Automatic annotation (TrEMBL):
Domain VWA7 N-terminal: 62-276
Sorted UniProt keywords: Signal
UniProt cross-references to PANTHER family, sorted A to Z: NG37 (PTHR14905), VON WILLEBRAND FACTOR A DOMAIN-CONTAINING PROTEIN 7 (PTHR14905:SF7)
Protein name according to UniProt: Uncharacterized protein
Signal peptide: 1-23
Domain Hemicentin/VWA7 galactose-binding: 433-520
């Protein structure tokens, strides 16, 4: 009993130390319970940025567009989500799962190529991110690096067959010993550095992965204080830290901690090798641009436009129009990477909610096109489309039955300019001839300005000195104006007004919206509320599902691109009324090599809808502000469904996901439940209503089954919990559908890698590299003292 008490106190001491740790494995966010290391997110970013330089030219990595930055975060985010699954060892190459891990990488590579060829960038990025997690774990969880270094290798040479089609890995037998127990597993840095036996390629076993149970105590463990694959003194509670993983800089979680930076560097090189060799070498330059968010791949925005406009034409011409479907997919819609244009009526509220959720995911507005005459005659608001347009930073675009079609088309094209930084997005209720004024800063990083409005008969722009700024195109050739009913769009290019605080004055014809945006290399990449999740020792900050909870504080992280000297986040109402400054969300200087990243605790979440702004001073000493388009709708319900976000849906296979609901509203309530998705994958929700007392937690199941013939693609799934007394919540997750898995036949394998031949393979690669026959640029990825030193 005494021995147990001493060990328990020892463990509590370490856990107390870990409360002051720096960073975790899946994501870049710092939080308790882990020491700083080179995360999956950082590895992914550094691998991809070098590829950008090769494909899109020098400077693309240091000054990427907003779309490229967001694409990078999508891939890195999908990578981090793999750590939500700690049951299937092949996702992490745990437990000598080399055959299934290799099969996974081959499949994910093929599916990524298929998705990007179908212009499904969401699925492609998610698939690629998941594959990169498994690639990177190979070098941390196996002994490949240790074998490489033991041969005297001068460069970090990745395994040539990882993820390559037609190749297969074969593990050592279950009775082949691979590790000795560590001499002193409780004392950091002692006894585990020489625990490997010279048997061949192996990887550590991790407790809780049923398909890969440790067959003998002389097989290597993953390691760390929380790995249950290695008992300490036979105790059913505490475990030894012995093992071989190199995940972090904490020797308590990573017994081979001394190899951490080398393992991360090797994983970065191998990630680049996988991306180029398995994915981008099989797709066109435009498809590569689509995958990585480069503007080259976005010139197809209007490829589908003529067909869509024919549907809109039918809709706005009463004598031609057929009643649109009761569900959103058959309503006239152009859903693009940059904008969603909708012309619809009689669409079910579930479909409208899903379209809005999908748009939030893409961070772009909904522009709702409607016939002017019909609303004036009937008073209908088209079942919520008008409200949704305003909440997403878009507009209600009125088109009369006899409106010039070309004029309307040109107006919509003007709104669809991609990759603009939002400066101001406001809206409100007004009566005819009401005048509303808004001030906003123009800074010299803005290369153009786009003003777009709805519910406005005219507007004026006033300079900092109070004089009227000329907006007449006949007097200023760099100004272009388009008007359509009570919508006005005005673009200022080339000669943007000088830096300063300007005032825009709107003369309203009714309820109005206003968006001011521009091309700039200073932009707000993203802002999200987060929570800590993941396996102990592998925690990271993952985005919350749905909206933040009213009255509570929440972790938050954000990213700014471009140079500025100071800045702070603000919450504002849609009418631009100030709610609260978020001064506790501060710059994370340790991760500044990826641009400016913020993290911290938000103030109490307000009860009403709000927007997020960043306001500050740029490096020229000029005031600037940037906004996120979408309003945030706080909730009195907390939703939790991480397994749905991490789900890979196999065609023809049923998957059931548990969803947790917490009533935080302070009153007992009854909640209506529904779930809807793009591709009719959701087949059942176990409850259509749930009664919860104040503070009570409940659950229901979400069942999904893709069609047997489903093709690779993304699928947005919206889950809604709506209270009768309290404000409900909606969460959208992006699952990826893939074809049925197919086992690789022996006849298809042209290259076989046997674990006991790995040492000779490494020696042969080193010899080729020294002879100049193996081209490798390991110097592209350099880390010094825990920081990325450059390419």
């Amino acid at each position: 009993m005494r021995g147990f008490t001493v060990v328990a106190l020892h463990l509590l001491f370490y856990l107390a130390i870990l409360q002051h740790a720096s960073s975790f494995i899946p994501t870049d966010t710092k939080a308790a319970f882990g020491f700083f290391g080179i995360s999956h997110e950082t590895q992914t970013k550094n691998a991809i940025k070098v590829i950008w330089e090769g494909y899109f030219g020098k400077g693309s990595a240091t000054i990427p567009s907003a779309a490229m930055t967001r694409a990078l975060k999508e891939i890195a985010g999908a990578n981090a989500f793999v750590d939500e699954d700690q049951i299937n060892g092949e996702l992490h190459f745990d437990g000598e799962s080399f055959i299934l891990g290799q099969q996974r990488l081959i499949d994910l590579g093929n599916w990524t190529v298929q998705a990007v060829r179908r212009n499904d960038s969401i699925a492609a990025r998610k698939l690629l991110g998941q594959a990169l997690h498994t690639v990177q774990d190979f070098y941390s969880h196996s002994n490949y690096l240790e074998m490489l270094l033991s041969t005297g290798a001068k460069k970090l040479v990745p395994h040539p067959g990882l993820g390559v089609e037609g190749t297969m890995f074969y593990p050592l037998g279950p009775t082949v010993n691979t590790c000795n127990p560590c001499e002193n597993a409780l004392q950091c840095g002692e006894g585990c550095e020489k625990n490997l036996l010279p048997a061949g390629l192996t990887s550590g076993y991790y407790g809780g992965e049923p398909a890969f149970k440790k067959p003998t105590k002389y097989k290597c463990s993953h390691g760390g204080l929380l790995d249950t694959s290695s008992l300490l003194f036979g105790s059913p509670v505490l475990y030894a830290g012995q093992g071989i993983n190199k995940d972090s800089k904490s020797c308590k979680f990573s017994p081979h901690v001394d190899y951490h930076e080398q393992a991360a560097n090797l994983a970065i090189i191998a990630s680049r090798q996988y991306i180029i060799g398995v994915v981008t070498s099989k797709i066109t330059m435009n498809q590569r641009a689509l995958l990585f968010g480069n503007d080259l791949g976005l010139n197809s925005l209007w490829n589908d436009y003529p067909q869509w406009w024919d549907l809109v034409d039918d809709f706005i011409r009463l004598h031609k129009r057929e009643d649109p479907s009761v569900f959103y997919r058959r309503a006239p819609m152009l859903h693009n990477a940059w904008h969603t244009f909708v012309a619809a009526k009689n669409v079910h509220e579930h479909g409208i909610a899903l379209v809005r959720a999908m748009t939030r995911d893409k961070l772009h507005p909904i522009q709702f096109v409607k016939r002017d005459a019909e609303e004036n005659a009937t008073g209908t608001d088209y079942l919520g489309w008008s409200e949704v347009a305003a909440e997403t930073g878009g507009h209600v675009i009125k088109v009369s039955e006899d409106e010039d079609i070309e004029k309307a088309a040109d107006f919509l094209k003007m709104l669809s300019n991609p990759d603009l930084a939002e400066v101001l997005s406001v809206g409100g209720a007004a009566q005819k001839d009401d005048v509303v004024n808004y001030t906003f800063p123009i800074d010299s990083t803005l290369e153009s300005l786009l003003f777009s409005t709805s519910g406005v008969s005219s507007f004026e722009l006033f300079s900092p000195d109070g004089s009227r700024y000329p907006l007449d195109p006949s007097m200023n050739k760099n100004i272009r104006v388009r008007e359509l009913s009570d919508n006005i769009a005005l673009n200022i290019s080339i000669l943007v007004p000088p830096a300063g605080t300007y005032t825009v004055s709107l003369k309203c014809s009714g309820d109005y919206t206003l968006s001011i945006s521009g091309k700039s290399d200073l932009f707000l990449v993203g802002f999200r509320f987060t929570e800590m999740r993941g396996r102990p020792g592998h925690e990271g900050a993952f985005p919350i599902f749905g909206s933040p909870v009213t009255g509570q504080s929440s972790l938050a992280e954000a990213w700014m691109h471009g140079n500025f000297s100071k800045g702070a986040f603000e919450f504002r109402a849609k009418q631009n009324k100030f709610i609260a400054e978020q001064s506790s969300i501060k710059i994370d200087s340790e991760l500044s090599h990826h641009g400016t990243r913020f993290e911290g605790q938000s103030s109490s979440i307000p009860a009403d809808d709000f927007m997020v702004y960043m306001k500050g001073v740029n490096d020229q000493g000029e005031e600037f502000q940037r906004a996120l388009l979408h309003m945030i709708s706080p909730s009195h319900v907390k939703l939790d469904l991480p397994k749905a976000e991490a789900a890979m849906l196999e065609a023809g296979k049923t998957v059931t996901i548990p969803v947790t609901v917490v009533n935080t509203g302070g009153v007992d309530d009854s909640f209506e439940i529904f779930a809807v998705d793009e591709k009719d994958v959701v087949t059942d929700v176990s409850k259509d209503k749930i009664n919860l007392k104040a503070g009570e937690t409940g659950t229901f199941d979400l069942t999904m089954e893709p069609a047997q013939d489903a093709v690779v693609g993304s699928n947005h799934i919206l889950v809604s919990v709506k209270g009768t007394k309290t404000r409900g919540n909606k969460a959208v997750v992006r699952a990826v559908i893939h074809p049925p898995r197919r086992e690789i036949l022996e006849s298809e394998i042209t290259q076989r890698y046997y674990a006991n031949e790995t040492e000779q393979l490494i020696k042969d690669m080193i010899a080729k590299e020294e002879q100049g026959k193996l081209r490798l640029r390991s110097e592209d990825f350099i880390w010094r003292d825990g920081a990325f030193a450059g390419y």
